[in-house]
Amino acid sequence: MTSQRNLRRASPVRSGFTLIELLVVIAIIAIVASLLLPSLTQAKLRAQAAQCVSNLKQLQVGWQMYANDFNDVLLPNAPDDPQFAQLPGGSTVVNSFAWCGMAEEGWTSQDANTNAIYYTTSPLGPYLANQIRVYKCPGDTVPSANGQRLRSYSMNSQMGQYLLSLLGPSFVMNNNPGYAVYNKMNDLVCPGAGLTWVFCDENGGSIDDGFLRVSMDKAQWADVPGSYHGGSSSFSFADSHVELRKWVRPEVQVPVVSGVIEHNVDAGLGNPDYIWFTQRSTCLVGQ
């Protein structure tokens, strides 16, 4: 009995880790986490990109269904800024029938930031079963003063000016005179339906109306496409396919900063991103 008691005294049972052992475990966990974090971040960005592509696919299907129901007339599109909608003689056209309504989003407390009525009453809404979430890129996370905005996507400024043309003799609103505008499906000859984009995500500092101004004669982003989910933007095309464009240069990858408005951002001559974008926006009339 005495020897057994002595053995128990000589070999006490340990009740936990020592401080050094805990520090070693914590260090190992930190190292593993640092190795996994980039992979987790990339996985999150890929998931956001996949959801963004899915959203644009649904918008594009709605766009096509609208044209099918209206004898190939394209979904109407118009800027909120009346300076881009002038009839001959200087009178201003007001088109209240744009694809997402005419109310303006912004960094302050604009009603259209959070009010779904603009989308449920828009001409596109019924073709999306009034699903509001499809208007929002999951990578667009910087809120306005009154909360997260409902919309991240805008339409090519060369698309859908048919209703405006009815208000004046042979008048078609054109942000880029000399370049084609597309009012009906059979207008999509150049560069072709598969090479002409319709919707894309727009930078949070640039988005206001649903009309993404394209600047063909100046090397600048009049309105700035988005660069979410890893420096890329999603584009839908008139033949209904969707592409993810990974931007090459930093000029278009404008950080979204709350309260900062971004327009007319210099692209620089020979910028491959600007060339890719403009070649898929419109073409010179007669080409």
Features:
6 helices, 287 residues, globular, 9% strand, alpha+beta, five-stranded mixed beta sheet
Return the average pLDDT rounded to an integer.
85
Task: State the end-to-end CA separation.
Answer: 106 Å
| Rg | 27 Å
Count of β-strands: 7
| Shape category | globular
Strand order of the largest sheet: 3-1-2-5-6
Please tell me about this protein's structure.
- This protein has helices spanning 2-10, 19-69, 117-120, 162-165, 228-231, 272-279, and strands spanning 153-156, 197-201, 211-212, 220-221, 232-237, 242-246, 265-266.
- Helix content is 28%, strand content 9%.
- It has 6 helices and 7 strands; from the N terminus they run αααβαβββαβββα.
- A 5-stranded mixed sheet has the order 3-1-2-5-6.
- The radius of gyration is 27 Å and the shape is globular.
- The mean pLDDT is 85.
- β5 and β6 form a beta hairpin.
- The N and C termini lie far apart (106 Å).
- The protein is of the alpha+beta class and 287 residues long.
Give a brief rundown of this model.
The chain is of the alpha+beta class. It is built from 6 helices and 7 strands. It is globular.
